[in-house]
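My current task is to audit a protein record that another person submitted. Please read both lines and tell me whether the tokens look consistent with the sequence. Do not assume that whoever made the record got everything right. I have pasted the whole thing underneath without changing anything:

===
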Amino acid sequence: LIYADYTPTSLLHDEPFTWEYDKKKWSPANYDKKFRGEVPYYYALKESLNSPTAQIAQKAGLNHIIDLMKQSGLTSDIPLYPSISLGVSEHTPLEVLQAYQTLSRLGNYKKLSFIQKIIDETGATIFDINGSHRTAESQVFDIKKTAELVGMMKQSVQSGTARSLSSLPFSAIAAGKTGTTTQGRDTWFAGFTPQSTAV
């Protein structure tokens, strides 16, 4: 989420950066190996710039980031490494879907369920996810900060790393984020419209 007093237009530094931890050093580079100097926060997100993202993560603290990841719905173990700020922790598609659904609901967590309704042999409804047995919800993130993040994620689809969506027969208002591992071994897109979330 947007950290502290930063806003989407806060200026960040896309420049060589080294994070020292546990007697080790980590220097994140951008996918294209180029640095762009001073850039607004929203630009760094939509273009997946690694150096400014890591710098913000260092200021926020890894434990805080892990707490946010868990609150969003990720349940797998998350290692205490600086690179988690760039999404290197491993999660199932269902976990990622849960986390993005939390963002799409402006920080409101609702556990995903494959079961929508259960009807017994008499025809009586004994479970309905939208009815009396509604899954519990909780507001885990600040609505205003989450809305700012969603606005930034819309930029990723409109003119950032996910802009190729515009070449498909897809015209809905959407927000999302791409992810690519070293040498393109894994490539991801997770995003949402006002009605649907997908990975």
Q: What stands out?
A: The chain is about 30% helix and 20% strand.
